[in-house]
Specification:
The protein is built from six helices and 36 strands. It is mainly beta. The protein starts with 12 loop residues before the first strand and ends with a strand.
């Protein structure tokens, strides 16, 4: 968090529960002189940057975030002119280097892990360990620098990272960068000194049903270059600050972040560190700040409550599959929840699309009822409670149709007349797989690709391959088509292009 002797803040206007439109504000700091404190946090004296050298370091997450979380200030010149070589590693003693706190991020693959430009990493078999932010600007008092350089020549042993940091700084200069941390004589790094500005017109969305973490935050309207991001901070209403790490929490798309508070595995097979976030349950996040290299940090004011996860032994579940009914499809929900908890139906998704018309669904006495307009297919519902995290339940609404009721007839897909009134158009809308002569078609909506609205084959269909449009039906002849659709029988048949 960038150091600010004085600042002006314009309060943001709240849009709705769980979302906010940030106001416009700025927090400024004089980059030439700053008020300083000892490592104990007590005010010392004003330090002129002309008394410092500046260099660049790769910094482990633990050291990078220790100064931010504890608002650590630069020590006074006279107190830090000599290295404290016998002082134990303060960051380690505070527990920051422990597994799951601010240790390296391990990834089973290197595909995305190596694409964060402001991080440094080491190879780990087929994957990598992201160790921390790279290219961090660091200031060190000239007297301390000379003392450490002499200690390096003398091969002085050091119980903290001071000598390692100075050895890694390379060439130093007197040029003052836009933002920097100060290296203290005990091997700690201060919180960042620079400028923080508030993002404008950013809508915050918060969810507790993400597969990437127990909690996910989305920033709609945020424009951010991921190449500049060295880290990020979350602050809660009790004043506690949490640091976020790349891949675990920070992604290549800065408009989305996630974090876990319990052990879990995300879809890519990684297990996000969670110990540093365990106590955030039941707290309100008030601010999120992206820390950027060589530029202003960007903060977003927010007001989101982190509902607690259901305690061990409790769960909410639903039937895996139910049969469609024109009288209203019913899904039983089993609620094993703590006393006083009352889950209500918050939203329904048909496939990937939200059902906007709330009159089409309801929940009463543990039974969800879907209107007849919600035809067979894959559904997800979100149940919400005031105290505990939302629950996302998925199930299939099955057509109840027998094999053979779906067929190809005269180059059209047809469904036999049935009591539910289901049609070929209903089938086409939930097709998940199409193969033509044994070759699967790629794409999110393969059904709409090869069928017209009335179920006829679209013989002019094409797929894009290597930047070119390739016809699905390449010339006259007979083609075998195989279809799979959620909640319906699979079908294989032939069509003929004359």
């Amino acid at each position: 968090m960038k150091k600010r002797p004085a600042f002006i803040m314009i309060a943001a206007g709240i849009m709705a529960a769980g979302s906010i439109l940030s106001g416009c504000s700025a927090e400024k700091v004089n980059k030439e002189t700053v008020s300083t404190m000892e490592s104990t946090g007590e005010t010392s004296e004003t330090i002129d940057t002309s008394a410092y050298y500046f260099g660049v370091l790769n910094v482990p997450y633990a050291d990078f975030y220790y100064g931010e979380i504890n608002h650590l200030q630069p020590e006074a010149l006279e107190a830090g002119s000599k290295g404290q070589y016998e002082t134990k590693d303060i960051v380690k003693a505070a527990g920051y280097r422990e597994e799951g706190i601010y240790d390296a991020v391990s990834s089973a693959t290197s595909a995305k892990s190596t694409r964060f430009e402001k991080t440094y990493y080491e190879e780990n078999g087929d994957g990598v360990n992201i160790i921390g932010p790279s290219g961090v600007h660091v200031a060190i008092s000239k007297e301390l620098y000379e003392d450490v350089m002499q200690a390096i020549k003398d091969e002085t042993e050091c119980s903290n990272p001071l000598i390692d940091f100075v050895s890694s700084m390379g060439e130093v200069s007197e040029d003052v960068p836009a933002e920097y941390k100060v290296l203290n004589s005990d091997g700690t790094l201060s919180e960042t000194i620079g400028t923080t500005v508030s993002a404008e017109n950013v809508k915050v969305q918060f969810e507790t049903t993400s597969v990437w973490g127990n909690y996910q935050i989305s920033f709609e309207g945020l424009e951010m270059d991921v190449a500049a991001i060295q880290g990020a901070l979350m602050e809660t209403s009790d004043g506690k600050i949490y640091g976020l790490e790349h891949l675990d929490n920070l992604w290549l798309k800065p408009e989305e972040v996630a974090f876990a508070v319990t052990e879990m595995t995300e879809p890519h097979g990684n297990t996000p560190s969670y110990r540093r976030f365990e106590d955030i349950q039941g707290k309100t996040i008030t601010k999120f700040t992206y820390m950027r290299s060589d530029g202003d940090d960007i903060s977003i004011d927010m007001d989101v409550y982190c509902k607690a996860l259901l305690p061990e032994g409790y769960q909410v579940s639903a039937e895996d599959k139910v049969v469609y009914s024109v009288e209203g499809t019913q899904v039983k929900v089993d609620e094993n929840v703590p006393e006083g908890s009352t889950y209500v139906l918050k939203s329904v998704l048909a496939g990937r699309s939200a059902v906007e018309d709330t009159s089409l669904y309801s929940m009463d006495n543990g039974v969800i009822t879907l209107g007849k307009e919600l035809k067979p297919g894959q559904y997800s519902v979100v149940l919400s409670d005031t105290t505990y995290a939302d629950q996302k339940l998925s199930f299939i609404v099955d057509s109840g149709l027998d094999a053979g009721t779906v067929a190809f007839d005269n180059n059209r897909l047809t469904i036999s007349e049935n009591e539910s009134g289901l049609t070929a158009a209903d089938y086409i809308g939930v097709i998940t797989s199409v193969s033509v002569n044994g070759e699967p078609l790629q794409g999110k909506n393969p059904g709409s690709l090869i069928f017209t609205e009335d179920g006829s084959i679209n013989f002019e269909a094409f797929v894009e391959m290597n930047g070119e449009n390739v016809p699905v039906f390449n010339g006259s002849g007979t083609y075998e088509i195989s279809l799979e659709a959620t909640g319906y029988p699979a079908v294989t048949g032939t069509v003929t292009l004359e």
